[in-house]
Amino acid sequence: MATKAGATLAVSGLTVSYGKAVRALREVSLEVPEGTVTAVLGANGAGKTTLLRALSGTLSFHRGAIEAGTITLGGRTLSGLRPAGVVAAGVVQVPEGRRVFGRLTVEENLRAGALGARGRPGGDAARDRVMELFPVLGERARQRAGLLSGGEQQMLAMGRALMARPSVLLLDEPTLGLAPLMAERIGETVAEINRQGTAVLLIEQNAALALRLATTAHVLEVGEVTLSGPADELAASDEVRRRYLGVGDADAVEPEFRRPPTLERWAG
Ligand SMILES: Nc1ncnc2c1ncn2[C@@H]1O[C@H](COP(=O)(O)OP(=O)(O)OP(=O)(O)O)[C@@H](O)[C@H]1O
């Protein structure tokens, strides 16, 4: 079934800092139009997660703050809302690393997601939709979420988010750490979720997958949007192919992209 499509999610002139020392985003503007998939690409530390934290109202949990700019959904201001308020408004995040409640069952995780809908009608339909998208969650309903595989946990995290009936789903690196086949399956599911009417903001280190799924894409570099356009045009651009798709002269690839993750990255 299709959920009610929402209006455009718009980020305008967004500047975010962590304390006085770190400005993680500088005047970022982008839109996730109703019913589309919009991708954000960027190297480690570019500010992708910070953008999602700002959108989901969770920045303050990480000692971050919006210094300037606005976030609106259909003209309604979201910046300044608490996370529960953002979810109730229809913008729901699937965090990086899944963050399922490992000691709770699959069923309990899904019910927790439904709480975000704050009693709005349509819970049964949302559940049916999740079970159709992810039949394995029905099969594992009574299992502890912590016992699921990485791919299944990603499905549960997405299912839990859909239980809140979002008009915009925020996905933070949904295929990170998954085997290629599972990553493809997750990608197909993202496309299906979108076909059913939910807009998606997709943050993905798998640039090839992201550009295939997205209508529009943006490249974030050191906190600034440096390139934006139709995803197929970005996929064809030399710069994107060289830096994000690993196509072309291997020596020309920025060393940044070949370095293993740093301790700082894991700690962050
Ligand atoms: N809680 C924090 N306190 C201070 N600085 C932070 C914090 N979180 C992130 N940063 C810094 O903000 C910048 C953007 O980080 P962010 O995690 O948003 O990037 P990213 O593109 O999501 O990278 P990754 O792919 O590694 O998650 C980096 O310089 C990072 O070190």
Automatic annotation (TrEMBL):
<protein>
    <submittedName>
        <fullName>Amino acid/amide ABC transporter ATP-binding protein 2 (HAAT family)</fullName>
    </submittedName>
</protein>
<dbReference type="Pfam" id="PF00005">
    <property type="entry name" value="ABC_tran"/>
</dbReference>
<keyword id="KW-0813">Transport</keyword>
<feature type="domain" description="ABC transporter">
    <location>
        <begin position="9"/>
        <end position="247"/>
    </location>
</feature>
<keyword id="KW-0547">Nucleotide-binding</keyword>
<keyword id="KW-0029">Amino-acid transport</keyword>
<comment type="similarity">
    <text>Belongs to the ABC transporter superfamily.</text>
</comment>
<dbReference type="GO" id="GO:0015807">
    <property type="term" value="P:L-amino acid transport"/>
</dbReference>
<keyword id="KW-0067">ATP-binding</keyword>
<dbReference type="GO" id="GO:0016887">
    <property type="term" value="F:ATP hydrolysis activity"/>
</dbReference>
<dbReference type="InterPro" id="IPR052156">
    <property type="entry name" value="BCAA_Transport_ATP-bd_LivF"/>
</dbReference>
<dbReference type="InterPro" id="IPR003439">
    <property type="entry name" value="ABC_transporter-like_ATP-bd"/>
</dbReference>
<dbReference type="InterPro" id="IPR027417">
    <property type="entry name" value="P-loop_NTPase"/>
</dbReference>
<dbReference type="GO" id="GO:0005524">
    <property type="term" value="F:ATP binding"/>
</dbReference>
<dbReference type="InterPro" id="IPR017871">
    <property type="entry name" value="ABC_transporter-like_CS"/>
</dbReference>
<dbReference type="InterPro" id="IPR003593">
    <property type="entry name" value="AAA+_ATPase"/>
</dbReference>
<dbReference type="GO" id="GO:0015658">
    <property type="term" value="F:branched-chain amino acid transmembrane transporter activity"/>
</dbReference>
